[in-house]
Every structure is written in C-alpha cells, then in structure tokens.
Design a protein that fits this description.
single chain, about 230 residues, mainly alpha, about 80% helix, globular
C-alpha cells in the first residue's frame, strides 16, 4: 500500500479551493442558510420555546444540505462538470441517509459529552481520571466525521457501511486523519471567528478538505477490489 502524505493533501485542497472559489462561496452560502435556524434554536437567549422548537425542526435539512456541499466538492476535485442544480440533486438523492447520518453523529456527541460531565463530577479520583476516556472518544468522533460524508457521496451506500468504513479508515490512517482533522478544525475556527467566513467559506472549505483527504487515503487501497461492487 502506498503511503498517504499530508502536505500534498493540504496543498491540493487549497489549490482546488482557489480554482473553484465561486463554487466554494456558493455551497458555503447555501449550507449556511440551512444551518442558521438550527444555530438560533440551540444558542442561549430569550427566544420563546415554541420558536426554538420550530427553528430546531429545520435540522431535518442540515444533513441533505451537507450532502449537497460534499457532492459538489467531490465532482469539482475530480474535474467533473458541475451545475448549480447538482447541489439540489444530491440534496434530494441523499436526503434520508444524510439526515440519518448527521442525527446519529449529533446523538453520539451528546451522549459522550453528557457521560464525560457525569463521570468528571464524581468525587472519586480514579473515576475522574477514567473520565478522560470520554475526551479521547470525542476526539475520535471528530476524526471519524472526516470520512462520513465523502464516503456517502463517493460510494453511495447505506448508513451502516458508511459508519463502519469511516471507523476503519480512521483507525488504519489515524496519523494523517488526526492531522487533517486539526487542520480543518483550525480553518473552520478562523472562518467562524471572522464572521463573514462562516457565511462564505466554512462548508466549502470543510467539504473540499474532507473530500480531498478521503480521496487521497482511498488511493492507498486502489489495488483492492472497489467497494462499489459490494
């Protein structure tokens, strides 16, 4: 198996983003429009509970909106032709699988965070030390999501296979996966801090970097039978 190099992934992702900056702005702005209601639903404030519920229901569109962004990124990185309709094609095609994937992921994060908070408050030194395990698990979940949507788009398979294969890719390529997760985390943090970056760049940058990472990692297994044939 060929070795996966980190720098070519980072360099290639930036080049792809630069070459397709218009599309990056397009998918980022579209995704941001779907994400804003969810953000307002969970942010602390004086919003009426009914309004929070109504805004929270919009989470049903977050998964498909994310799938649309990754679909565009996948085609552009492969130098395939893209039209604005392709975003909504992917939005519709992957609607339920993408939504199920993102809800499962959100639920997993909530469970890990709640468990960490619970065990870290127990007045027992051994238990509190062991609670650090949940931090590592949360970190691994962050690494895991790098591959989930690129896998869903590229292999067009079921949720169970997407999660299992994302887990296996993360374990088998833990070094490059961890570094790329940190790189994307920093870039997303910069986008959010700048404010306008969250609107114009956030999802575009993330989808390009995650897809580039996935496609480069998969080249490592290119001599193996394609998983599409399964």
């Amino acid at each position: 198996m060929k070795k996966v190099l980190i720098w070519p992934i980072i360099k290639g992702a930036f080049i792809d983003i630069y070459d397709n900056l218009g599309w990056v702005l397009f998918i980022s702005a579209l995704w941001f429009g779907f994400a804003v209601p969810v953000v307002f639903a969970v942010l602390p404030g004086n919003l009426h509970i009914l309004l929070r519920v109504l805004l929270g229901i919009s989470v049903i569109f977050l998964g498909p909106a994310t799938a649309g962004a990754y679909y565009i990124a996948n085609r552009l990185i492969k130098r395939e032709s893209v039209e604005w309709r392709d975003y909504f094609y992917a939005f519709k095609k992957f609607f339920w699988r993408a939504e199920a994937l993102i809800l499962i992921y959100i639920l997993a994060i909530i469970i890990v965070v709640v468990d960490f908070m619970f065990y870290s408050q127990i007045q027992n030194m051994v238990v509190r030390i062991l609670s650090i395990f949940w931090i590592y698990l949360l970190l691994f979940l962050g690494i895991l999501q790098t591959y989930m949507f690129p896998l869903l788009i590229e292999q067009d398979t079921g949720i169970k296979k997407v999660i299992i294969r994302s887990f296996l890719l993360s374990i088998d390529n833990i070094g490059v996966s961890f570094v790329m997760f940190l790189v994307v985390l920093v870039l997303c943090g910069i986008c959010i801090i700048t404010g306008v970056g969250a609107l114009l760049l956030l999802m575009g940058v993330k989808s390009f970097f995650d897809t580039k990472t996935f496609l480069n990692v998969m080249e490592k297994y290119e001599e193996l039978p394609s998983s599409k044939e399964e």
